[in-house]
Amino acid sequence: MKVTANATRSEGWWAVEVPEIDGLFTQVRRLDQIVDMVRDAAELLEGIDPDALDVEIFANVPHRDMADRARELTEHARRTQE
Q1: DSSP assignment, residue 9?
Q2: pTM assigned to the model
Q3: InterPro entries attached here (predicted)?
């Protein structure tokens, strides 16, 4: 099941909403925590197998292009180190 995690910055936290799962709202400190938190919440709320979820993150941030580029560079650096 593919779901979208809409994340918005709020006072040092990321507020996360998943519109495909009614009532799934959560918060995390870092973007890299979203997938695990959404999977855990979906399992608790709906009994959905966490491994069955494909979570796409959409971060509502100013300068999104810069954030996307930083993510790409981080991934490139990780692959290079391997």
Answers
A1: E
A2: 0.72
A3: TTHA1013/TTHA0281-like
Strand segments (E) across the chain: 2-10, 13-17, 25-28, 54-60
Please give the CATH number for the structural domain made up of 2-81: 3.30.2390
Q: Which residues contact 48 (CB under 8 A, 6 or more apart)?
A: 1, 21, 42
pLDDT in tens, 8-23: 988 889 999 999 999 9
Indicate the burial class of 24 (C-beta count within 10 angstroms; 0-12, 13-18, 19 or more): buried
Domain definitions of the chain by residue range: 2-81
pLDDT in tens, 35-76: 999 999 999 999 999 999 999 999 887 666 777 788 899 999
